[in-house]
Amino acid sequence: MELVFQAKSEFYFSDPDCPVAVKRVAASNAAQHLHDLTTEPHRHDFAELVIITAGNGVQVVDGGEYAVNLGDVFLIQGNGAHYFLERNRVSMINVLYDPARLPLPFGWLRRLPGYNVIFELEPSVRSAETFKHHLKLSAAEIVGKLERELEQDTPGAELAAFQRLLELIVFISRCYDAPPAENLAAVMRVGRIISLLESEFMREWRLEELAKLAATSPNNLLRLFRTVTGTSPVDYLIRVRLRRAAEALKNTPGAVAEIAADCGFADSNYFARKFRAAYGVSPREFRKRPL
After folding, report:
1. Model-level pTM?
2. CB neighbour burial string for 17-40, b if at least 16 within 10 angstroms, e if fewer
3. How many CB atoms lie within 10 A of CB 125?
4. For residue range 217-241, what is the model confidence (pLDDT) as tens digits?
5. Residues 160, 105: Cα–Cα separation, whole Å
6. Contact in structure between 10 and 36 (CB atoms under 8 Å)
């Protein structure tokens, strides 16, 4: 059985209140920094945005082998075991961050189709076919600014670093919204539909309407959507509405029935059943839970 190392966040983030770091890996097989596991199978409890700045190689992610080349940008989720099997003068920038501990505006980010594809959808639908067509871009200037902010020991440095990270995420998401390679077009269609469901979750969407917007048939959209997300557009919409309701329960004093209606649930009993199925407790019990 292959040994997989667990890379812990305290190894990489110098400030526990600012779980953001930049690690540069030069074109050498020697370790580049303390706890450099580039060529060792490992997983971690944070996200790793990888930007290939030179060379090419083969990376293994959850047992699958994928070619990487100059200009590729991709996200490694923390729970995926990964390492470089081959490195042909590969140099890269690894931007490490913990999305669970940062106030990322997910509601806004998920309105960007490119964000859905590279930061949320793509890790679950990787294949040898799609992996080699990752986003091509140069984000060195933004990363350089992020590095400088992390090196500062001045008031507000953490906030400025977070601002640069968010700028990088938005920049990559916008670049990914450019016309995609043909074999990524299907994934991009799903990304755009998710953006619509996230931003207009109150609307009573019909599958036929979404399919028309995605320029495909209802059956094909349903197949693509299930392949990428593991669920249907209707069930995804319900999930979005439940998430918005959970946020409202914690952050507003409104009555449960009012919040249900505001989040697109006309029947409060149906809302309560769906909420319990998703969160394990009733909406009222959820509201009483400590933050």
Report:
1. 0.64
2. ebbbbbbebeeeeeeeeeeebbee
3. 17
4. 999 888 888 876 778 899 989 989 9
5. 16
6. no
